[in-house]
Each structure stands twice: as C-alpha cells, then as structure tokens.
C-alpha cells in the first residue's frame, strides 16, 4: 500500500522493483486496478524482481516470462 501511495503522489504509472523477496513466480492484483508481476527464488525469501502496472498497459501484455530472480522478460 505504501508503494502504491508513493506512485500516486509522484504520478508514476509503471514501476520496476528489486529485492521484493517473494518466493516463486506469479502475479497479484493490487488496489486501483494495478497488477504486480513478480519473480523470486523458489525456496528462499531473497532477491526477486517485480513490475507494477496499471490496467491498460497490463492488458496490452500478451505474454511475460520470468527468467530468474533478477530478470523479467
């Protein structure tokens, strides 16, 4: 929620995140229609990257591929 408030305050639409420390790969629906795509280690809460998107750009993504805990493609 704090990150979403900061994004709104600074008028940021798309935000790349590092060190999110979530296990596995997936996507999560957030408030305000935003979506978080993330990729992290399978067994530990270390590293991890994410991408927060508003609804319109998210709908334009045909496919995304998590490469590892450092790269989304």
Could you walk me through the main structural features you see in this protein, from its secondary elements to its overall organization?
The chain is α+β, with helices and mostly antiparallel strands and 73 residues long. The chain has one domain. It is built from 2 helices and 4 strands; from the N terminus they run αββββα. The chain has helices spanning 2-9, 55-60, and strands at 15-18, 25-29, 35-39, 49-53. It has a 4-stranded antiparallel beta sheet. The mean pLDDT is 88.
Order of helices and strands: HEEEEH
Shape: globular
> How many alpha or pi helices?
2
Distance between the termini: 25 Å
What number of domains? 1
Order of strands, main sheet, comes to 1-4-3-2
Q: Report the count of strand segments.
A: 4
- List unreliable stretches of 5+ residues: none
The rounded Rg comes to 12 Å
